[in-house]
Amino acid sequence: MTATAARPTSPATLNDVLLRGELARRPGRAPNLQDENAAYIALSQQLASGPTAVLQSLIDAALSLCDAGTAGVSLLETGAGGVSHFRWTVLSGRLAANVDGTTPRDFSPCGVCMDCDAPVHLVHPERYFTYFQSAGVPFCEALVLPFRVNGTPGGTIWIITHDDSRRFDMEDVRIMTRLATFTGAAYSAISRTLSS
Predict the structure, then answer these.
(1) Residue 67: helix, strand or coil by DSSP?
(2) Sign for the pseudo-dihedral over CA of 64, 67, 72, 73
């Protein structure tokens, strides 16, 4: 899926899809420390094999630990003419076939997240970011977190639910915050490897 930067034709606004403070009001589920620890051990062992190998496992862990429908990494890139966009470099779940797709830097949930430099929680973002409608599946909720590569903004890690019965909570934010740190470390290691 490669998105065009067309503005929405629907009456939805960014404020209609951006949930502020909702996660803190929701009851949180108890941590599943056994599964979480097993995932972190597996990720740590894979880091020894090289940073590229760990990225798919990291996203698979996000999908499983957060009971999401899709999980992904969007890497910030600058394309021809100096225009920035996000590339879906790693995906798992229902949207996995869209790996390598792009969304605009200045008109996407990832862009909103990078502007806030904080986790962003959205409900049915396809009402505003209408290019998501071409995916053919609902984007019921999205949770997007930024990560840094070598100390500078590098992209986002995100999860989506495709079923209104699954709602994110602060436990998802906690898990995804840890996975964002892993993601930034993996991309930092990749960039160091490429520059040497």
Answers:
(1) coil
(2) negative
CA-based end-to-end distance of the chain: 33
Query: Closest Cα to residue 105, out of 124, 93, 121, 87?
Result: 87
pLDDT under 70 in the chain at which residues? Answer: 1-10, 50-52, 193-196
The model's pTM: 0.89
Q: What is the DSSP letter of 29?
A: P
How far apart (Å, rounded) are the C-alpha atoms in residues 64 and 186? Answer: 20
Contact between residue 88 and residue 98 where contact means Cβ atoms under 8 Å apart: yes
Integer Rg of the chain from CA: 16
CA atoms within 13 A on the CB side of 143: 27
Predicted local distance difference test score (pLDDT) of residue 30:
86
Amino acid at 15: N
> Is residue 19 classed as helix, strand or coil in its secondary structure?
strand
CA neighbor of 93 nearest in space, from 158, 144, 28:
158
Collapsed DSSP state (helix, strand, coil) of residue 167: coil
